[in-house]
UniProtKB/TrEMBL annotation:
Chain ranges of the Polysaccharide biosynthesis domain: 23-146
Protein name per its UniProtKB record: Polysaccharide biosynthesis domain-containing protein
Organism: Periophthalmus magnuspinnatus
Classification via PANTHER family: PROTEIN PBDC1 (PTHR13410:SF9)
Transmembrane regions listed in the UniProt entry: none
A cellular component term, taken from the record's GO annotations: cytoplasm
Length: 152
């Protein structure tokens, strides 16, 4: 019953809540659970075979056209959160509204691909997670996690 109520609460528009700390805590828990599941996934399945959305090819192509010089192996907070970065990311992300199912879902992203999720190595993102992780998987940057966790 509690999980059902939380799921319903998270499906309502943000305007319905303001800055309700209980809702922020629910989002944090959901984002943390997603991060754990994703890390376990790239640890146990060869990342190059993963499909994260129905439009992975389009996400990857448009991401690399828009952010061809972005170092996705070792991101910096300002790559995603500076005013300049937000100005570049906003139009990129908005083109996937209604196309990517979890377009606006808050997700934790590792800054350094060679490290696990930690407070220092994590940033909160939305659809950028999919674009960056699809690129990391296709470009072999998550292979080290897979190989170290699967002893291959």
């Amino acid at each position: 019953e509690g999980a059902s109520a939380a799921a319903h609460a998270l499906s309502l528009p943000a305007e319905a809540y303001g800055n309700d700390p209980r809702l922020e805590a629910m989002w944090a828990i959901k984002a943390s659970d997603h991060a754990e599941v994703y890390f376990n996934l790239i640890s146990s399945v060869d990342p190059k075979f993963l499909k994260l959305t129905k439009v992975d090819d389009k996400l990857y192509t448009l991401f690399r056209e828009s952010f061809k010089d972005l170092d996705i192996k070792l991101l910096k907070t300002e790559d995603l959160k500076s005013d300049e970065a937000k100005g570049r990311w906003r139009p990129f992300c908005n083109q996937f509204e209604g196309i990517v199912e979890d377009f606006n879902y808050g997700t934790l992203l590792r800054l350094d691909t060679e490290k696990e999720y930690t407070e220092e190595n994590t940033i909160f993102t939305r659809v950028q997670f999919y674009a960056i992780e699809i690129a990391r998987n296709r470009e072999g940057l998550n292979d080290k996690v897979f190989k170290s966790k699967s002893n291959r």
